[in-house]
Specification:
6 helices; eight-stranded mixed sheet; 29% strand; alpha/beta; 25 strands
């Protein structure tokens, strides 16, 4: 009798799962399917075909997929190859505290996929729980002065390194990465800066003093280690993260995922000084055969080549980790990271690390997250092309998440220890 097993059945989303099928006939061809519904009822699904061993087993840690959504030995392929049934949906957990994603795994006889017909025979199934917070992590709503967000604290009475988590142009409050980072020992503030609660509905300017208030708020918390904090940021958030690192001396470590090294769209204001947006070339916006729009070339005649627009990154006192997806179709992030690094080098600085991933797209997220190749975002009419190829993008996510944690620990904990 065929059986399907997975261990662990309940785990954090960044933890691998060992999936096996047993009780098959030797060389039997089977189909493994995964599916989940997000909090809005959007379905995501994947499948792969395997051939049983001489002993009637399929072990995803050593046996290759022969076809389906990926080919080769990929133990977590059924997770990172999940795709939306409705195009342009991005898988994103909203309520991270009270419920996990539930992934249905099914072992079936293979069948030709035909619309409105599923004649495959289900032989075994199980449900996995994938959490974004570990037991004991607490969430505190932040509504202090102008600040809006959520603070996630690891369990225990220790002091923890503090991190501010910034997302990009979608606005709102996004918490899944902060909850997961708190589960790994970081006091993490998921910070909203527009499109949430009573914050501005549209982003007109970036007030760096707002983010300075967030830094001071975090450092005042009795569980935050100090004397500095870290930043984890992507896209527009990385633009802001870089500006914070330059202007705020309390920033000790900054992770910049696919961000620019100049101001985009909205002016930055700090203590009366205004940094104006960089001009762009609208004629360099392009779209593919599906109508997905790529913006990665629009600064070719300005930000890509003219140093007058660059942030003065050499003024920053902390360390940088640049994470680049080389197939990013939203911004030319590889070029911008290289420009920033060259600027640091010219000023005699070696306070940087670069991780550049061939085949990875714009939305580099925690391990085993599905690739979001294109999606819609608020206040942008066309569908945005983020880019990336499924397998190398998945590898980039798994590797970079480990490196992010190592970088933050090195510069938020080790630096503190060396000062004592």
């Amino acid at each position: 009798m065929a059986q399907l097993t997975a261990a662990p059945l309940s785990a954090l989303v960044d933890e691998p799962v060992h999936i096996r099928a047993t009780g098959l006939t030797p060389s039997q061809l089977v189909c493994l399917r995964a599916s989940l519904s997000d909090e809005k009822g959007n379905l995501f699904y994947s499948q792969a075909y395997y051939k049983a061993s001489d002993t009637g087993e399929v072990d995803l840690e050593k046996d290759p997929s022969l076809g389906g959504d990926f080919v080769g030995v990929h133990p977590m392929g059924l997770f990172w190859s999940l795709k939306p049934e409705t195009p342009l949906k991005r898988l994103m957990k909203r309520d991270v505290m009270n419920s996990p994603f539930q992934i249905q795994l099914k072992l079936c006889d293979p069948d030709v996929p035909i619309t409105n017909r599923d004649s495959s025979t289900l032989t075994a199934s199980l449900t996995l729980e994938r959490w974004y917070v570990a037991p004991g992590v607490t969430r505190i709503e932040v509504k202090e002065g102008r600040l809006r967000g959520a603070l996630f604290l690891p369990p225990g009475d220790n002091h923890f390194p503090g991190v501010i988590d910034l997302f990009g142009s979608g606005g709102g409050l996004i918490e899944f990465r902060a909850g997961l980072l708190a589960s790994r020992g970081f006091a993490t503030l998921a910070l909203a800066y527009w499109g949430y609660d009573d914050l501005p509905r549209q982003l007109r300017e970036v007030d760096i003093e707002y983010f300075e208030e967030a830094v001071n708020f975090l450092l005042r918390h009795p569980k935050v280690l100090g004397p500095g904090v870290g930043i984890l940021s992507i896209c527009k958030g990385a633009e802001i993260g870089l500006s914070m690192a330059i202007n705020l001396k309390q920033i000790s470590a900054t992770v910049l995922i696919n961000g620019p090294n100049f101001v985009i769209s909205n002016p930055h204001v700090y203590r009366g000084e205004v940094s104006q947006p960089t001009p762009y070339s609208i004629e360099l916006i392009s779209s593919n055969a599906l109508g997905f729009v790529a913006f990665h070339r629009v600064y070719e005649q300005t930000g890509d080549v003219d140093s007058q627009y660059f942030f003065p990154i050499e003024k920053a006192q902390g360390h940088f980790l640049f994470i680049v997806g080389e197939e990013d179709k939203n911004i030319n992030s590889k070029c911008y990271a290289q420009q920033a690094i060259e600027q640091l080098r010219r000023n005699g600085k070696e306070n940087w690390t670069l991780l550049s991933y061939p085949g990875a797209g714009h939305l580099i997220e925690p391990p085993y997250s599905p690739l979001c190749y294109a999606s819609r975002i608020p206040y942008v009419h066309p569908n945005i092309l983020w880019g990336g190829d499924v397998i190398p993008h998945a590898a980039a996510q798994e590797h970079s998440w480990k490196e992010i944690q190592k970088f933050l620990r090195e510069h938020l904990i080790s630096t503190r220890t060396s000062q004592l």
